Amino acid sequence: MSASPTPSGPAAPSASSPSPAFRAAYGRALALWPVPVEPVEHEGEFGTTRVNACGAVGRPPLVLLGGGGATSAGWYARVAELARTHRVHAVDVPGTPGLTVPTGRPLRRPADLMAWLDGLLDGLGLDRVALMGHSYGGWIAAGYAVHAPDRVERLVLLDPTQVFAGYRVSYLVRAVPLLVRPGEAGARRFLAWECGGGPGVAPELVRLMGVGGREFRGVRPVTGARPELARLAAAGTSVLVLVAGGSRAHDVWKVGAAAGRGLPGARVVTVPGVGHHALPELRSAAVEGELSGFLTGGAESG
Question: What's the CA angle centered on 92, arms 238 and 195, to 5 degrees?
Fold first, then answer.
């Protein structure tokens, strides 16, 4: 699920050790990865961050930040192609379901999220990275590119929420019950509605979203204002924005128009026929081409 519609505030602590049911669902979702997974746990001031890595050590680093409900396992359809050219680090974002355990200093404000990501990159030994975020992860990625432009070489935003436009009321109406009565059945209905007649979300990820919603009930991601696009544009960071043409999370036209207007040097592409939640899983040669070309420098912004 995307970022919570609730106001910014302290993230409630999750269980110090996720339950066997959540770990089992997480493992089944992670088994979708078609490449070997190297689990990494980074100890920092905000707790232990789980990172799933793949690709040869020494290749250019790429950090992936997913949406609020899918965990890092949700990148399964992207990682094989990305790992051909990059060392991929897929992160379980704190304040959302996953194997990241926030046992340290509480994350309370957007500035804390930036400090968390600073510490994670330092701990992984990554000075400058390509950064890709989907949904809530896109909001974090865009904010981080404003916070530390010298550390973000390239920025990819996959249908980011709360960056270029707000939520549709209809989306919030459908999403809020998942916070009140979380579970697999509700997650399945919500995702089927949001995906419409387009590609869907893998059953393993639907299951994980349902189990995670129950187990992490009460945990809310830290949210805040939209990133300052003028500062991002001034930094000269290469940016690719992929808009889900069938997204029900926000107004697709407004997102594309605001991205082009706010980041005049960015490459903005609308991917037709796919919903907000299904975009990271979309099997598409066109999407693969956009991502690989941009990340390897073959498709410069503009």
Answer: 75
